[in-house]
Amino acid sequence: MGKKKMNSLEDLGGFVFSTNDDFELEEGTTEETLSPDEQYLEAHFSNKGRGGKVVTVIKGFVGTEDDLKDLGKLLKVKCGVGGSVKDGEIIIQGNFRDKVIEILEKENYNVKRVGG
């Protein structure tokens, strides 16, 4: 196994190097969280890759990681189950798709049921 040859600065993964002591990185790509009525979420039902365990997956959230985590926490508390937030998705343990859709609609989110 050899090292991968780097051909350009992009191969470094977007790091910025500077020897200037006064350098400040500008954060121009902060993602704004859309209001609930502008969000179009998808409620999926899945058991793939989870040892046969059933989960409800919410996809399509546009916004900051903190706001996504807050929404995930709200859903977990209202359903009374565990879950996680990762890769821009909210994963709720168990088949709570209908209840999650109901909760999100009360919060003014646009939710679409996807799959069986």
Automatic annotation (TrEMBL):
The protein's name in its UniProt record: Translation initiation factor 1 (eIF-1/SUI1)
| GO MF entries | mRNA binding; translation initiation factor activity
Give start-end of the signal peptide. Answer: none
Q: Extract the SUPFAM superfamilies matched here.
A: eIF1-like
Q: Which Gene3D superfamilies match?
A: SUI1-like domain
Known InterPro entries for this protein? Answer: DENR/SUI1_TIF, SUI1, SUI1_arc_bac, SUI1_dom_sf
Q: Which family, according to the similarity comment?
A: Belongs to the SUI1 family.
Taken from the record, one Pfam family name reads SUI1
SUI1 domain ranges (all copies):
48-108
Name any Gene Ontology BP term. translation reinitiation
Ordered alphabetically, the record's keywords are:
Initiation factor, Protein biosynthesis, Translation regulation
